[in-house]
UniProtKB/TrEMBL annotation:
Residues 30-103 form the Prepilin peptidase dependent protein C-like C-terminal domain. InterPro entries: N_methyl_site, PpdC-like_C. It comes from Frischella perrara. This is Prepilin-type N-terminal cleavage/methylation domain protein. The keyword RNA-binding does not apply. Signal peptide: none annotated. Keywords: Membrane, Transmembrane, Transmembrane helix. The keyword Magnesium does not apply. Pfam families: N_methyl (PF07963), T2SSppdC (PF12528). The chain crosses the membrane at residues 6-27.
Length: 104
């Protein structure tokens, strides 16, 4: 009868080490994907808010912004028109810019 069936302790430790390295890689990948998803969602939300500000301009007092976000409105006169630029600063240090022309 041969008692060499199965794995040795050394082979088992190597297999556990390789499995652990692969799992750490997957966890880091998942963390990166989750972060990128939240940042993309924040950018999309900021774009929506920027368009809402431009739609409601000049009455922008009722705009609801997430905490830690700020916005700035710049008005640039141009002939009989005016360019209104909206910049939104998110908590991920992103800067979203939108602009619209308003003519009389």
């Amino acid at each position: 009868m041969n008692h060499n069936d199965g794995f040795s302790l050394f082979e088992l430790l190597i297999a556990i080490l390789l499995f652990s390295i692969v799992m750490v890689g997957f966890i880091q990948f998942q963390t990166t994907l989750t972060t990128m998803m939240w940042q993309a969602k924040a950018k999309n939300n900021a774009q929506t808010i920027a368009f809402e500000i431009l739609e409601r301009y000049p009455d922008t007092t009722t705009i609801k912004m997430p905490s830690n976000w700020n916005y700035q409105i710049i008005q640039i006169p141009y002939l009989q028109c005016q360019i209104v630029k909206v910049t939104i600063y998110t908590d991920y240090m992103h800067e979203i810019n939108q602009q619209r022309w308003f003519c009389h």
